[in-house]
Amino acid sequence: MSEKQTTDREVRARVNNVPVFEFAQTAFTLPPSLAKARVAIVTTAGLRVEGDAHWQPGDQSFTVLDHGARNVKLAHFSPNFDRSGFALDLNVVYPLDRLDELAANKTIGSVASKHISFMGAQLDHTLATMRLDSGPAAAKILRDDGVDVVLLTPV
Predict the structure, then answer these.
(1) What are the distances in angstroms from CA 145 to CA 49, 80, 97?
(2) pLDDT by residue (tens digit) across 77-94?
(3) Is beta strand 38-43 parallel, antiparallel or unpaired with respect to 72-74?
(4) Domain for residue 26, yes or no?
(5) Chain Cα centroid distance, residue 80
(6) Count of structural domains within the chain
(7) Is residue 77 part of a domain?
(8) What are the strands, taking DSSP E only, across 24-134?
(9) Which candidate, 140, 145, 136, 138, places its Cα nearest to that of 110?
């Protein structure tokens, strides 16, 4: 067994039974058809625009990424995060080009001008800050941009 397999097994053993926050109700709003929907990306890949500070463990804030910006870097602090796909193709975690193609062929109505990046691998599994502060703040930014549908790329 390789060292990586042992590490993966140990990490899974530590996190498999970690309690997570459970919502009493799940909010849902019926969106328009995809052909009319404005779509944004929300990722937990910990993306930052070049020059922004790195994420710190437990940071439940977010970064707003302008649609035209392709100079993003993966600043995720977790050493267990596989960066190889991102290094080969930004679209693996931040599929801007795919959304642009879907808009061009009219599969979706439009692509949002703003997208959101959080850092996954949160140590506080209640995610109180995200649920009560940064999550609603990110949602407001997307709503103000007319977003109907979010493509979540969990990493």
Answers:
(1) 20, 34, 19
(2) 666 667 778 778 889 889
(3) unpaired
(4) no
(5) 17
(6) 1
(7) yes
(8) 38-43, 47-49, 63-66, 72-74, 110-111, 114-117
(9) 145
